[in-house]
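Example record used in the benchmark description.
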Amino acid sequence: MSAKHTMKHKLKSKTNWDKVKSLTEKQIIAAAKSDPDAKPLTRAQLKKFKRVHPPKEIDVKAIREKLHVSQKEFASYFGVSVRTIQEWEQHRRTPTTIARNFLKVIDKAPKAVLKALAA
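Model output (structure tokens):
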């Protein structure tokens, strides 16, 4: 199945964000700890991660074209405005460090990203 075909299905969140916004930080942490499928990592587990070095430059247009999607589709699938995609592709703006990391993951594993976002 192609990435284009996979991305045709609009991703919907099952999260009730109004309910989440009404919770205190303490309640959110308690809820996360009680979920056996989504336990927060311990400090010891977090220490095993190595520092991430994002790419200094990233070719957003090449990534999008590799997936055979329009700017509008790409923006919709990955939660970015079309204007932002245009700015990045035309080098009028540079993606933030976090965005460059996310774009690198999209480039290397687009199906995994879509699967994770759909969950």
